[in-house]
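User: I'm curious what two different proteins look like when written out as structure tokens. Can you demonstrate?

Assistant: Sure. I'll show them one after the other, since each token string lines up with its own sequence. Here's the first protein:
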Amino acid sequence: MRIILYTGKGGVGKTTLSAATAFKAARKGLRTLVISTDPAHSLSDAFDLPLGPEPTPVSENLWGQEVNVLKDIRQYWGELQTSLSALLVTRGFDHVVADELAVMPGMEEVAALLHVDQKAESGDYDLIILDCAPTGETVRLISMPDVIDWYLAHLFQVSIQGAGVLQPVIKTALSLPVQLVSKSLETLFAGVARVQKRLLDPAQTSIRVVMTPEKMVYKEALRSLTYFSLFGYNVDAVLVNRVVQEADVAETSGFLASLKQLQQPYLQQIAQSFAPLPILNLPLRAGEVVGLESLREVGEQAFAQHVPEAVLFSGNLQHIEKTATGYCLRRRFPAFEIEKFDLRKKGDELILTIGNVRHSLMLPHTLAQLEPAGARFSKGELQIDFV
């Protein structure tokens, strides 16, 4: 089972490449579902046929779906909110306060993740491709398991990090009879833990960043790669769309020649900054990409030298080395801005802040007893010394 998330700045071609990848994989015989989690929903426009909130046949071995977020929230959260409110009242909260606290953070994102997990668990598909919302929303999407874990840990002293998150743990943590804990709450714990494990498994899940060779897009892609690495997700490729070819310049007027000249420094920066990730360049097309035939052409161009459903890159994200004075925690970051970085240790937690995104790492016992003594970025790694 494979899951591939396509993300990037708005308008760079995420939907087109999601659909093209799905169509190419389906033509190889893989049962493929491509899902749009972007509220704008342009996947049906790419296929040139209507898609609904449930998988819709597109071609042989290919289904498309545009998630109905409101429907999913009702499905996953309706009974759950009632259950949470009741639990909070038993812990001494006022009814009004309990109702407010029962509206857990990121309902839309968690509902989307649980929906994807449900499709993956069904066994109906070999490959699921997510056409994600623009970068910022995708960061929110993949960070939601961490947010939910924080919420549960601080409100109920329950964590989804371990596997035992169902009835025994809930009963112990809440000191309440099991009958007071609804099945919907147990399902949330299990579902979020399962989807987090699935997303963090590089053999199952990959993120692919789509961009164009422009300054703003390039900068956003760099930041997104840092954030994905921060949360431990595997980015296995960068797709650079709308690259002007030499043949285009030779056959046209000065506009494309100027555009090609403008793109060159960014293509060089992309090659340097995103190494060793595979970089797949796609040419600027004369017409729009609508319908299966044009999607087939894009898929052939994008994956002329790669297998679309394969894990195109994977590496050891984090390791610990013994040093003369203590230990060094090394965590791979293909792109990193050290001036926007901060860290602090709280118990056995290491809290990393990069830009406006924060993530907590649970330290092994060896490091939890020590203190961070400095950090640096070198050769694609964040290196943190502990003494």
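Here's a second, unrelated protein for contrast:
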Amino acid sequence: EDGLLELVADDDFVNLLAAGADKPHLLMLSACETAQRMQEDTHPFVGLGPRLIEAGIPAVVAMQELVPVKTAHELVRVFAAQLARHGLVDRALSEARLPLYSQENEAWSVPVLFMRTSTGRIALGNPVHEILQRIRASGVYARENLMLPLPIDVVHVLGMEDATNLRQLSQEQAAARKLLEAATEIFERHENQERRRRTLVMLVGERGSAKSTQLRELAQDAALFYEMDRPVLPVIIDLSNFPFAASAQGGPLQFLIFQTLAAIWPDLQANQFEAMLTGRSSLTFRFLFDGSDDLTAEQRFEAWQRVSLLATRYPHHEYLLASDPDHLDRRNLTRLRPTDMLVMQPLLQPQIKQFLEQSGTENDLKLLSHLQRHHLFDLVEIPWLMARIWGQAKEGTLPESRTTVLTDLVEEALSSIKWLPGMRTRARITLQALAWHMQEGQANLISVDEAFRVLRDVRGDRDYPLEGLFANLVNTELLARVGDDMVRFTNPQVQAYLCAREIAESEQWETILEDITATLGRLGRLRWWSATLVYLAGLLERPRILVDNIVYGVNLLQSEQIFLAVRCILEMTKGGTDVAAWSQIDGLADQIIDGLIWRLNRGNEPNIGRRIRIVEALGQMRHGNGVAYLSRLANLKLRRNSRGDLEYEPSYVRMAATVSLHRQMPEVARAVRSLAEEMSGDAPAYEMLADVLAAWHE
């Protein structure tokens, strides 16, 4: 009591413990030589450790020899931590000795265990730790079962924002940070506030932005970085099951959470769950709500209201709810009252490049090269399309163009329709008509009533129920309901592709094309129709007519249409690899290249950003005249300053030219070497040129 030393003989210590009614389950004797016995005594229960076992103590850990104090402290620390996790004393001691053995520390053999129990269990262990281990191994949470762990960025917004602002944030690059980093900071702020105030985070992302995958990442993070003094138990709740729990006692949301937990914690009792929920334990739940996008508007409103009430009633837990921005109207937001919003951003080319390079697998590096060669980075900025293309590349299939990617996607989705004979074709025709109707009306969202009018027009005199067709179209996940009254395509790329397909299959496609291209002088119309026209270039048998219409009567030295023409040429030639398609546009390609080169002059185009864009377009075209000019731009002084002296172009422009050339060099060198094999007298010159190109690339 006063902190002074009091020596006790072994016999007295043993007798004191033996006389006690409640004996300890374990004694850890970290003092030296507590396991030794007198050499002249042959009786096994002589040392202090063995004598304590004889006195009825279930387990004793003692030291056979001298042990350094620092080593003893580390041994006890690891031993206690492991024992608290699972309650098995023999396993805990082995786990504590292992680091010493790995370090070739001779002290690993000093601790010894004396034990009366046959099972080695002296405590129940920490059930939360066991559950976290199950979560780490669970198919729902396991990292290897994620769609694709892409490096998703988010914009952190405090409080509430309406759907219009959120959609704008999700489509435009803003100051962003990693999702895990932003979420961790929010939850740490919650902890620093001693968990007195509710923290309810919204994860906002469109369909296909991999929200479910990111929720699993957040769950894995909590399960992997487990802290003994403040355990966080992640639970992913699928709110699409909320309607089935509507009549449950105690409230549908709490019942759904309990059922979700019981799937990985079979012996969990209702009173245990209630104690954890109300805060009568040190446990913190990280509730991750998914699946509310699949509810009707009224079901979603009720489910979100329950989530808000739960967060208010039990503010010491962590709450995060994933949602499409379409559902965040003022009514829902007012009811939910989120404290923070994390708005998911599209993938950027550097992120995709870094992700594939860090993987380092042959398939990923091939995919990266292919994306660069075919200029498909704008397509794979959508996580679900990136995941799809990555999965196909893993099987050895690389995309030829964006048109082939969307064609495969749509056909695969339609193959899921097994409703009535011949309905797949009717479904495709209906989707195309719907896409054309929306694209022509410059709408990404229309009412269900308006959609049914289109479905009715397509059906005509045929005898099939429109409700059944509409339900099947939604089930393909090409079409999505927004609440009870609105509908849209799951992604603008799907709408643009299906609209292009409708135009390509129309008997009046040339007339339609003329009407569209005649209005491209207005920037808004150009942006609205660009994706559709690019897909159309990949679908038409005579795409030259499309490019002619785009550039007809247009001043290529000033207009934005020249960049759209380049994109269409790249799509129709599959990134420049289709020689037959190139032969259709030889003269037109020369005209476009000349226009781009003319605009690279600072006097003709003073805007550096647009000049960099021109350099990138020249590099993508891989045209001989363009490559020659890019080489001069990167290496020579081409422009005159105010004094009339020649000087280099700005470094940004030269760097863009260098990068464009660098990407082309290996392919150009291979082409030159193949020419050398075909030539006789000029072969050495071609070989030397190929060597120069290879050296320049290195």
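A detail about the second structure: The mean pLDDT is 81.
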